[in-house]
Amino acid sequence: MTAFEGFPEICSTAHIAASDAFAHWEQLVAGAITEVSIAPTVSRPFEGRIRSADFGDISVGTVTAEGHELRRSRRHIARADDFHVIGSVVLAGRAQVEHAGNRVELTPGAMIFYDTSQPIRWRSEGLIEDLTVRVPRQQVVDHLGVRADALPAGMVIGEGGVGPMLARFFRQVAQLHSTDPAAAAVLASSGIDLLGAAATIASGGRPGRAQIEAVNGQQVLDYLRANFTDPELTIERIADGCRVSRRTLYRVVAEFEGGLGAVLRGMRLERARVLLVSSDFRSVAAVATASGFATERQFYRAFQAETGMTPGEYRAIADSDAPIA
C-alpha cells in the first residue's frame, strides 16, 4: 500500500538539514498526532512525511518515516489538554508496541488502537507507513457506549481483518478529497461506524447494527470494485462473495445512491473513460467488454446517457486534447 496522495502533505523533513531533521520530526508528530519523545533507530539520514486532512472531529492521514522509537510518557500525558483514540493500520513495514499492558508486533495489514491518555512505546527498525484515524476519546466512548477504561487500547486486529477494509475506505476518502473536499467530508463522517466496529471487534465485543451495516456496505463495495468488469455479475454471486444473505445484500445496496445498478454502471463507465483514451483499446467493442458491459449497445446507451456524447465522440475530443466537460 502507498501513501494517500489525495490528502495534502501538511509536514515533512524533506527540506530540513539532516542534523535538524529528527528534532523537527518530533515537533511535527506532536502537532499532527500527539506529543511524544522520539529517537532514531537507524544510522542513515532520517526522512518523514505526514499527509492529513480534518473532517470535523475526525483527523485522517498517513505517516511515512524511517526507523525510530517513539515514547509517550506520563510527563506528556500530565500536560495534555485533551486525549484521543487513534486507530492505526500498518500499510508497509513493521513495528513493536507496548501499550496499556499489551506488547505486540505490527505487520502490514494489522490494526491497533492507541489511547493517548496512557503511555505508549513504539519502535520500528526501518521504513514504515501507516494510516491513522484520530478521534476525540470522549466521542469514541459515547459512540461505543462503553466506559473509558474499556477502550481497546493496545489491542490488535490481525492482517486480513477490518483494518485493510478501513484503509481502503479512507483511501477512497483521500481520492475524493483531492477533487471534492465537501463530498469527502460527508463520506468520512460515515467512517466512524467502521472505526467503531473495528474497536468493538478488537475488544472482543459484538458490533452494533450501524457498525455491522457499515462493514457490510464497505465489503460489498470492495467486492464490486474487484468484479465489476464481469458482465454476468448477479445478486447471488455478490451475496456469496461477500458471505452475506441476499436479504442483507438488498438492505445494504438500498443505501447506495441509485441502488446497485447505478453503482455498477458508474464503476464501468469510469473504467470505459480510461480505456477510451488508451492506445491499447482502439475498438469500442473491446472497451465495452473490458469495462463489464454485456453488449456494445448497452455500453453506447449508458455512455451517452452519462456524458451526452458517444464513445467515439468522447475519444475524438480526448485525442484532440480539448477539455472534456
From TrEMBL:
Coiled coil: none annotated. It comes from the Bacteria. Residues 218-317 form the HTH araC/xylS-type domain. SMART domains: HTH_ARAC (SM00342). One of its GO terms (molecular function) is sequence-specific DNA binding. Keywords: DNA-binding, Transcription, Transcription regulation. InterPro entries: AraC-bd_2, AraC_XylS_family_regulators, Homeodomain-like_sf, HTH_AraC, HTH_AraC-typ_CS, RmlC_Cupin_sf. Gene3D superfamilies: Homeodomain-like. PANTHER family: ARAC SUBFAMILY, HTH-TYPE TRANSCRIPTIONAL ACTIVATOR RHAS-RELATED. This is AraC family transcriptional regulator.
